[in-house]
Structure prediction request, 138 residues.
Amino acid sequence: MDIDARGPRFGAAVTTVVLAAVLITGSTWLLAWQVLAFALGASGGVARSPYGWLFRKAVRPRLGPPAQFESPQPPQFAQAVGLVFAVVGLIGFTAGPDWLGFAATGCALAAAFLNAAFGYCLGCETYLLVRRVTVRTQ
Prediction:
């Protein structure tokens, strides 16, 4: 079943704010929260992530009907990619080196910002590229 395309973009906006706060404050707890949010989105789909729930309950009822739907698989893959970067960032901030935490969190922030501000999902595009390559090689 397709999902409202505005939901993942809303989640990316919230993720952008959370990751920017992590880089500003250095809060490992906040990054751990984002790891959990990514893990839930990667395992159950973006609709089951905390930001997906917030969109569904608080934001979508205040918007008009969706004009665009999308397949849930690319955003779910993007959540998995974000999870990898956030976990690496958490490792960098907790076990060192700090630069690894900043770099990985910064990469995740850049990807989230691209989606939130411009509607360009790097993880989704990667998913589609991997699908094209794997279908051609079979």
The two ends are 26 Å apart (CA to CA). The helical segments are 6-25, 28-44, 50-59, 73-95, 98-118, 122-137. The longest helix spans residues 73-95.
